[in-house]
What does this fold into?
Amino acid sequence: MPKIVYPICCGIYVHKSFVVACIAKTDQNLVTTYTKSKRFSTFTSDLRRLSQWLAENNCKDVCMESTGKYWIPVWNVLEQTCNCTIAHPKYAKAIKGKKTDKRDAKWIADIFKHDLIVGSFIPPHEIRQLRDLCRYHFKLTSYTTGEKNRAQNCLTVSNIKLDDVFSDVFGKSSTAITNKLLESNEPFDVSEFVDRRCKKPIAEIQAAVDGEICVEQAEKLRIIRSHMDSLNLCKANLESTILEIASKFLPQINLVLTVPGIATFSAVAIIGEIGVDMTVFETSRHLCSWAGLTPQNDQSAGKKKTTRISRAGAYIKPLLVQCALAAIKSKKHPEIRNRYNSIKKRRGHKKAIIAVARMMLTAIYNILKKSEPYNAELYRKSDKPPVQRVVTVEQAVFILQRQGYLVTNSP
It folds into this structure.
């Protein structure tokens, strides 16, 4: 029989407008009794009554299923008096058949008392607020990118070829020309709107704006640009709030900034995702797995199946990949560049960049845990190849083929 880890615990099944709770009590003879399941509304006053009911039954350990955003208010009330655990639905799913809310609450309590539920990482309140704002900033950036694509579509259908002559369609020169196009549909000389540092010939730029924007497309473009200005204002206000909250974690942010490829706002976003207390992760490998940067381990009957990375880390994984792309371009950090190049030869660009992102997250884990800045010497010492390195013929042929050489058998 599995060991009883929590003699008195509670399972809570969460809905939008109510929760169902069931307490499991196990005596010294390993006999478990379950209280009659109680239903509470999700109004704050009723959640406080739930907390009081748990205290009356001497229950300090609570487990609930992650259900959208509905678990967050319940967590905020109960975390002050209880040790809360939030479970992914795949770990707390009940057996099919005769499924009710009361049975689900009892099932969660039953498996939680044996510690069979893997709890999700929930950071402290201040980190949660920082994470929420950083994710909203990411969404605003995505909205701005979408509006830029729509503005580019307006120019494309009007045969305005600014993207052929400017690297940035929303740069200084291109924006001035677009403003002139929206003011008047008459031909004009572009030379007075082009910055003197622009290397493109004026004649080529003049040919690129030889199109015609209809009234409907012009109005659509004005609305898009107005929306972009509003989004930029919202982002500026949001950034000031984020930096104000992040000032409380300034020592940790400065440590993360020592890692190559990471800028200020990226460091704030990383702290918002993983927090500053690394003791919640057993090892750096657990953190990398939580962030979705490790290959899957799926083997059966001696056959290895897919090794693709998981979907976890929907926010931190793209952020670390962007930082890794910046780090491999810098010649100041050969330890990262060399690791990328060595893996790219064998596995390709995508797997190499994920490996570099995992390397950076491992460094961040140790930096925050030991409160020490990034040390490139540790990587340079471990980057030395073995003295006697044996490469088989098959491996040599594979490496040559990956580099574009045609390998044939000698006559």
About this structure: The first strand starts at residue 8 and ends at 14. The radius of gyration is 29 Å. The longest helix spans residues 125-157.
